[in-house]
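Ticket #4471: structure export looks truncated?
Reporter: QA, pipeline team
Priority: medium

Steps to reproduce: submit the single chain below to the structure queue and open the exported record.
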Amino acid sequence: MTDIELTLRQPFDKAQDKAQGIASTELIERDHAIVAAAIYRYTDITFQRGEGVYLYDFEGRRYLDFVAGIATMNVGHCHPDVVEAICDQARILIHGASHVGYMEAYVEMLEALKAIAPGDLKNGKGVLMNSGSEAVETGIKLARYVTNRSMLLAFTDSFHGRPMGALALTASSELYRRRLSSLLTGVYHTPYPYCYRCPLKHKSPETCGLACLNLVEKALQTVVPPEDLAGIVFEPIAGEGGYIVPPDGFLQGLREICDRHGALLIADEVQTGLGRTGKMFAMEHWGVAPDVVCLAKALGGGLPLGAALARAELVDAWPPAAQGTTFGGNPIACRSGLTTLRIVQEENLMAHAVEVGDYIQSRFRAAQKELPIIGDVRGKGLMVGVELVNADGSPASEIIKAVIKEIGASGMALTKCGASVLRIAPPLIITQEQAGEGVDVILNVLRHNQW
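Actual output as written to the record:
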């Protein structure tokens, strides 16, 4: 075991561990006996507690967290201000239900989102839900209702959720759709500009992006009548598909197409939003403002919370009871989210994400010279993808599973996205030194194993 691995896996108070009366192996055995195998686990790490950028298992081993609850824990685990906000709210109101009456935290959450939203969304209105999937479902329903149109256009390599409506938009893996026919009808997919592996075999990002836009135009000429198109749903950076950053001009092109045909541009910022990429919204990297934005993950500061924010005239055309939720906008989740958003702003974590993210990318790009298994390095802010490849350049889809397990055994929590992309999405509070330790662990695993 290397020095860096020993540092990452140092134990915490053993007395606390003993008080738990459980071993990690025991918990895993109990899990396997009762939890559906459909809940896939990337690692064999158990979580007993979290603090800052670290997770701890039941034996007291410490793990550097490069996952952040899948791009969720932007201000780290158990930030004292977030914990205090949760406890304070829990003492006065745990649940009231937005359909029954009015809650201050619900209103303040949407006011806070409006204040940071791009374009006309600064004057928008919204609804709070429980998750990203529900936020996307809300966007779908809103678009179809207010436009009185039936069709939606989405992209390959996209992920928008697992419920049957959001799943109809999802196209990042056939596994999610296997044996599931009768999904939401009226959805058509065109290729996302995955320039490293251009679906149209173009050699430059410029021509790849233009060709993918041309396929959108072709779809509108052949299979999606423009007068039937309710909206185009997109991720500014494709998340589960492989942390794919589109070329300049692509998102602007989608905005122009929607404007020309009277369709809505619906941005799924569930994974990219609220500071992760170095901007409050990833769309801002390209100067694009959508008609509807869907949010979740970091929105609740670790608690279930989703949101759909849209131009006011769209929401005003939606009649009462057209959408609903029992738990959406829960006051505890709202207080947690409001505190998290304040910390991101006050501590300048977006600029910090750019600085540390650039450092991480520079380390992996330097390592490419000696490690041919690293095929591509991409991302923005602390949303970094490192694509692993076989000797022939194909995705290292089998190798990456073993790589992630080995990284976990070395004292780090890490996951994948796409076919073979290391997904690096640590809390935004991570220091450059901590980020460097994590990169060292990953590179050590890649260097010292026969992949």
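Status: closed, not a bug. The export was complete when the record was re-opened. Leaving a note from the reviewer for reference: The longest helix spans residues 349-367.
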